[in-house]
Amino acid sequence: SRMPSLAACYNLMDFEAVARRVMKKTAWAYYSSGADDEITMRENHAAFHKIWFRPRILVDVENIDMTTTMLGTKCSIPFYVTATALGKLGHPEGEVVLTKAAHAHNVVQMIPTLASCSFDEIVDAKQGDQVQWLQLYVNKDREITRKIVEHAEKRGCKGLFITVDAPQLGRREKDMRSKFSDAGSNVQSGGDNIDRSQGAARAISSFIDPALSWKDIPWFKSITKMPIVLKGVQCVEDVLRAVEAGCDGVVLSNHGGRQLETARSGIEVLAEVMPALRERGWEKRIEVYVDGGVRRATDILKALCLGAKGVGIGRPFLFAMSAYGLEGVDRAMQLLKDEMEMNMRLIGATRVEDLNPSLLDTRGLLNG
Ligand code: FNR
């Protein structure tokens, strides 16, 4: 069976289907897996289908402007490339492929702590005034973490995303079964006594500090001027606490369904978070992001209508990169832009500022 041509990929799911056929088994297992029975992973995308549009007609939609800002950075479209570890499992050049595509489309890239390329390689691949953020796994040795954060700020990173949903790595059985042996990685923080029998994820994550707590947030604020965003917040109480702790943002995320099984989808949590923020007049005090299962521009639009500042997208770009390299990621991003322009027209919104809850019917979510 011949590999389908790139032009035959018409949406983000198509890249996944090709990647599944052409990727090495261990790499596919690591990228595609979710925790346990993968219920949360499936629900992440399915939850978007519980929300319907209430489009407005007879709006002049000739000119569509989908630009926005995230953490003060102007972006061409309200999504960013979220952090995903071990880019070289899918492509020999690893994360810098994503850096190049992000530059071509003027979107932000979040650099993972557990990248295959070194942090400096990924920053060196940056062009012009391209913006990157750092995703941080907090080391038990805080001096290592301090050095990582200070170095990232010095190298121009514009946001610090502290992952808070992974005190222990989830149980991804596909990955465990595939007997990962070489992540092709440059991962520094794992130490030498790596137990590879538990899959790629567990092999590289033993340094992560399960004792990380709210008490550490002031310390992060004291060591960096980068905006601080908690990645992996999953309920309204913790969003309110993040505001009180002086965080600049949260990502409502369950780590792509790779951590706590039967955690709710980010979009569902968003529907509960925004009213609580508005009730307190706090919606301008914190930027709220969502990731997990975003595959269509309609998904992005639903998150923005509910009040998200932007969404993160993970696996689709990994699959596009693994199947077709830079050209694949470039096409995936272009498809999203084309979908976005059309769907903004069809719902009667010409600018991101026009997106609001009245454009949605959310009665299928929560209790309405
Ligand atoms: C991730 N994710 C992740 N998150 C994080 O904070 N640090 C990390 O190292 C990784 N690594 C990682 C690897 C792979 C292969 C995947 C698929 C995901 C989670 C990621 O940032 C994001 O939350 C999800 O990927 C979003 O869901 P989708 O877009 O993949 O459905």
Automatic annotation (TrEMBL):
Its cofactor is heme b; FMN. Coiled coil: none annotated. Its EC number is 1.1.2.3. Its main location: mitochondrion. One of its GO terms (cellular component) is mitochondrial intermembrane space. GO terms for biological process: lactate metabolic process. It comes from the Eukaryota. Keywords: Flavoprotein, FMN, Heme, Iron, Metal-binding, Mitochondrion, Oxidoreductase. It catalyses: (S)-lactate + 2 Fe(III)-[cytochrome c] = 2 Fe(II)-[cytochrome c] + pyruvate + 2 H(+). The keyword Nucleotide-binding does not apply. GO terms for molecular function: heme binding; L-lactate dehydrogenase (cytochrome) activity; metal ion binding. It is found in: Mitochondrion intermembrane space. Residues 4-365 form the FMN hydroxy acid dehydrogenase domain. It is an enzyme of class 1 (oxidoreductase). Belongs to the cytochrome b5 family. In the N-terminal section; belongs to the cytochrome b5 family. Homotetramer. This is L-lactate dehydrogenase (cytochrome). It comes from Penicillium arizonense. The chain holds residues 102 to 469 of 498 of the full protein.
